[in-house]
């Protein structure tokens, strides 16, 4: 376009240097221009010349930052570069900062991508089922732009990191009450528990609701050994197990018969069986 000087496009100069200041130009853009000279004989036009304006800090933030994955421990963020008119130069990279759960603790292994203009970045070593806040700013040859865009995301659930806590058993003669507390690192929402009891080589399992923290198993006989395990699950699956071994109480209403071998004392023979009078006394005859 022609440029007006003092309200006119006609500049009368004789053997003089004339300076023109152009305003309203955009940063880091190349412009072409030419000068037409006129005298009484006619016109003469210079060859086309060009100049490039200097860069400035990016004036606009990245656009549409989103999480394109839903993994428990890694996240891939993607975004669109700032509007061209607001880049103020070639974008050479991006500055990415992340915090967990609105805390002041930065997420490790998150770096500025100053030498990489790609609009995608994968963040490793995250914690399952946690929310994160990230800020993204563009970088050009002048520096980092003051305007940022915010990326908010939550990692997916994973299996529990540890088993249910404080797993205990309270015995009677024919039943056992098992008790426990939830895992300390559930990595998600506990959906169920699996309680398995093994007696005499036979295994039985009970699938229990997430709000269950004790359960009575009544499939025992007096003085029976057992092994029990407990594990918790999220939507991602079951975590580690905890186990406990024990024995139900004896039935003292029926005397315990101790099977022995014959013994000789001063010429007499014990009976082959020794019936108990109570839990601490035997009736010995010979």
Sheet bearing the most strands, described? 4 strands, antiparallel
Stretches where pLDDT is under 50 for at least 5 consecutive residues are none
Compute the CA-based radius of gyration.
42 Å
Q: What is the number of helices?
A: 1
Number of strands: 22
Bulk shape:
rod-shaped
* Chain oligomer state: single chain
Mean pLDDT: 86
- Spatial strand order of the main sheet: 14-13-16-17
Q: Percentage of helical residues?
A: under 10%
Range of strand content: 35-45%
Helix and strand sequence: EEEEEEHEEEEEEEEEEEEEEEE
Distance between the termini: 131 Å
Structural class given helices, strands, pairing? Answer: mainly beta
Question: Quick recap of the structure?
Answer:
With 286 residues, this protein is an all-beta fold.
Secondary-structure map:
Elements (H helix, E strand, L loop, with lengths): L29 E4 L2 E3 L4 E3 L3 E4 L10 E5 L7 E6 L3 H4 L5 E8 L19 E4 L7 E9 L9 E6 L10 E7 L4 E6 L10 E8 L2 E8 L4 E4 L7 E10 L2 E11 L9 E3 L4 E2 L2 E2 L3 E6 L2 E2 L4
Antiparallel strand pairs: 1-4, 2-3, 5-6, 6-8, 7-9, 9-10, 11-12, 12-15, 13-14, 13-16, 16-17, 18-21, 19-20, 21-22
Describe the protein's architecture and organization.
- The chain has 286 residues and is an all-beta fold.
- Helix content is 1%, strand content 42%.
- It has one helix and 22 strands.
- The protein has one helix spanning 84-87; strands at residues 30-33, 36-38, 43-45, 49-52, 63-67, 75-80, 93-100, 120-123, 131-139, 149-154, 165-171, 176-181, 192-199, 202-209, 214-217, 225-234, 237-247, 257-259, 264-265, 268-269, 273-278, 281-282.
- The strands form eight sheets. Strands 14-13-16-17 form a four-stranded antiparallel β-sheet, with no helix packed on it. Strands 5-6-8 form a three-stranded antiparallel β-sheet, with no helix packed on it. A three-stranded antiparallel β-sheet has the order 7-9-10, with no helix packed on it.
- β13 (192-199) and β14 form a beta hairpin.
